[in-house]
Amino acid sequence: MRYIPVAVAPLVCLCLLSSTSASRFQFSLTSRTEECFMETVNARASDNKVLFRFGILEPEIYDVVDVAVKSPSQREVMTWKSEQNNFKTAVIRESGLYHLCFRKLKGASSIITLFYSFDFISTGVRSLTLIPNVTATINKDTPTISAYMQMALTTLNSEVIRMGVMEFDLVGVSQSIIRGNTRVKLLLTVDSITDEEYVDIALAMLPDRMQHPITWKTMESYATGGFRDYVIDDAATELGSHVSFDITEIFENKLNGPAETITFSIHAQENGDAVVFGTHHVSEDYFPHIVVEDLGLELMHEVAYFKESVFTLRGDISFIKHRERMSRDAAESANSRVKWMSLITNILLVAIAFGQVVYIRSMLESSY
């Protein structure tokens, strides 16, 4: 058996941390046409983060741009309007070419020079991904009809009106896939939220095998309040973001038992109205997933945390330098205006004094 030397291990972990190396690019915008650049991302784990920073080099106060980072399916991951400098970290699930798009706004200089810095962090490696056999919405208002497109969640005055249901097949999944450093997560992606910026999604596990057809009527005892006894966890999330639930123990217990499927329901806590992606009309990366991941060495997570902290620090420093430059320019502009106003004031005072001398002299001459 071969061992990696201690001195080399951190370097190996850093190499394994991400399959995409960091990139930094400088370019110029000469027109108001949107210009896009592409970066490859391999989202191989549930904890994938994109780190993005941009800025205008030596901007005038009126130099601003619109910036958007778009996923391979052209969904906006990050957006900024009328900005000169900014940065952000976002959790992503979709693999492929990400588009980094820049548009110069009206009134900006004819040529502006920008830079962007793009990096990607992924810790852990998937050993298994399960996609649900079925995802559906059951609705109290239509108790005999189900929608199999997406999972709609509606709760009004703490009463669940619509909830989502998903069933995963466990046939052929071996118990040996669960090891000491393995975690099992259920991943969901929010498609839309009504009226609010955030929605609190609660996850529950059906105690029995799901009955078909999947309707409010066939699940009435569970849907009308029985689900509250089986709630596992809840998480607040925003539009377009991803939410994950750790279901390691539940998944392991299911594998140790005779069950061939595992079924979950999701609903909005308190008052909420949202839609979670199902298994139709969207990229497979946004489907509900159960992922079994090997977390890897603790050192890898420490390196990932350090890498993200350095990125955030550099972004903060860049923002401070940008604000300092704007403050310095404002101070220099104010000093310049003060200088010219002082000069004009002195000239006016000299002119007034000269005028007074001439006037008094003329008065004295006329009196004689």
Describe the model:
This protein has 368 residues and is of the alpha+beta class. It has 2 domains: 103 residues, GOLD domain (Jelly Rolls), CATH 2.60.120.680; 173 residues, Jelly Rolls. Helices cover 25% and strands 40% of the residues. Strand 12 and strand 13 form a beta hairpin. The radius of gyration is 31 Å and the shape is elongated. The chain starts with 8 loop residues before the first helix and ends with a helix.
Provide a quick synopsis of the model.
This is GOLD domain-containing protein. With 368 residues, the chain is an alpha+beta fold.
Keywords, separated by commas or semicolons:
single chain; alpha+beta; Jelly Rolls; 2 domains; 4 helices
Residue share in β-strands: 35-45%
Order of helices and strands: HEEEEEEEEEEEEEEEHEEHEEEH
Low-confidence stretches: 1-20
Number of helices: 4
By DSSP, the count of extended strands is: 20
CATH topology of the largest domain: Jelly Rolls
Report, as a whole number of angstroms, the end-to-end distance: 121 Å
Number of domains: 2
The CATH architecture designation of the largest domain is Sandwich
3D shape: elongated
Oligomer: single chain
Assign the CATH class of the largest domain.
Answer: Mainly Beta
Please state the CA-atom Rg, rounded to the nearest Å.
Answer: 31 Å
Indicate the structural class. alpha+beta
Q: How confident overall, as mean pLDDT? A: 84
Helix content: 25-40%
* Main beta sheet strand tally, sense and closure: 12 strands, antiparallel
